[in-house]
Amino acid sequence: MIAERLPEIAALSPQEKWLLAGELWDAVAEDPAAVPQNEAQRELIRERWEEFQANPGLGTTWEAIRRRLGKA
């Protein structure tokens, strides 16, 4: 486990661990191609994209989601 090789992580507060998790997620999100997907995940994405294409009014913009979460 990576955390075992980085003992500083264990010393972080729960809030700091959440912040670190968010920073790691953001770093991974910068290169989506680096995240492997299996066929079931690709199929789910295709299905949801087709649903959105058929009913675009049912979708929500990223800006609307951020506002709803109080992050905008």
Describe what you observe in this structure.
The protein has 72 residues and is an all-alpha fold. It folds into two domains: 1-35; 36-72, no CATH class. It has helices spanning 2-5, 14-29, 39-54, 62-68. The longest helix has 16 residues, at 14-29. The radius of gyration is 17 Å and the shape is flat.
Sequence-ordered SSE layout with sheet pairings:
Blueprint: H1 2-5, H2 14-29, H3 39-54, H4 62-68
Structure summary, number of beta strands:
0
**How does the overall form come out from the CA principal axes?**
flat
Distance between the termini: 35 Å
**Amount of beta strand:** under 5%
Number of distinct helices: 4
* Structural class category: mainly alpha
Pick out the low-confidence regions: none
What helical percentage do the residues reach? 55-70%
- The secondary-structure element order is HHHH
Sheet having the most strands: none
Number of domains: 2
